[in-house]
């Protein structure tokens, strides 16, 4: 039986660590208690890590774009994963963010200063087990980004395996394997400059000897482990994983080698051990098999998908996860079940509350959102340029604030906080702007005029109709949605849309 099968692991000193899975994640009630304790203990205070992260004998949630956000990472830990990787985060995006202590959620947030987007959210539960994967092509930029987050994560991994065009054109991902000098410079700079362990994740080359040679060279930089995906940059999931390539790397290196790419053969927890044995690796990293059903990490067998989805949704609610990100993750769990009646209903959902309602969690979602609002949580509906300017200490020259017409000050504008939710309007004839235009024509009021201002990546629009002005106080991430929000305020103000309806469908919280 391998170390990964019996839950034990071996540290670099040869000591055996029993039960590497660690404690299970708490229940929803337990998480509320965790938040309270975090506040009492001074959440956000930088404390030294309990132990330096070991990569030996581990089952690991692989880095996956849009999947490896906080709810999925926490659920993987609850089911038995030892280490969880974040999705790949580009260095310049991290550098464009500021660190916020979120006392309402009990989290540390890295917030994009241009639009309030949560670039990375983490919490105390995962601090000793979360590895942030970074995309970079520059050693000094990588170091600066790494210094920003090193106290809030257990390790940092450099992506040297992503074959996507965006990464390759930017000199990141698998492009670094073609520029070994740069790749080693990045790793060595981070190893020497950061307090947390540094690793990298690569893909195999077409030649087995060249693959071993490159991995040996990367290991010379002092990294703590290396992840190896058993497909080349041009191969895709339908191609066989080159397990013998990974085995050759594991045999040649003295540092832990993490096997990746075996999801086609992994259908239960026991298959993880088989993959580990076949590749001769210290640890196994799982991507697609975990994306489909993250309870793959359970030693006692996978749970029914509905149960997994409900657990995931509760975590998404409790940590105020972005609705579109939650939908993406659930969609990847459902796969062919999207064609069922419930699956089709899910595809029409847009907000987190709408998604939760399909699994009988709508009331729970709304209750928690109202609690968050009462506690002062800054969610999507509360994000505005003024708040971002006040919070961010990194903005050197914030964008100049654009103003509406001086002859009509903001106090004279009919204002409501209304969110435009696209899924509520199935056809163009249903759109708020279309309805405003039709109503204004029927009343012979002239053409509605929209004026939209932008600050950073946020937009706000004012609708002028027959000498009156209307706006939503909620800033949107594109001009079209800002205009639709202003149109909704107009429709509500003139009695064409019922306020109770807007509250019921989630447009007003």
Automatic annotation (TrEMBL):
Which InterPro entries did the record assign? Aldolase_TIM (IPR013785), dsRBD_dom (IPR014720), DUS-like_FMN-bd (IPR035587), DUS2_DSRM (IPR044463), tRNA-DUS-like (IPR052582)
Cellular component, GO annotation: cytoplasm
Superkingdom, according to UniProt?
A: Eukaryota
Task: List residues of the DRBM domain.
Answer: 432-495
User: What's a Gene Ontology MF term here?
Assistant: tRNA binding
Q: Which GO terms describe its biological process?
A: regulation of gene expression
Question: Region Disordered: start and end of each range?
Answer: 1-28
Signal sequence range: none
Q: Which protein are we looking at?
A: tRNA-dihydrouridine(20) synthase [NAD(P)+]-like
* Provenance organism: Frankliniella occidentalis
Name of encoding gene: LOC113201776
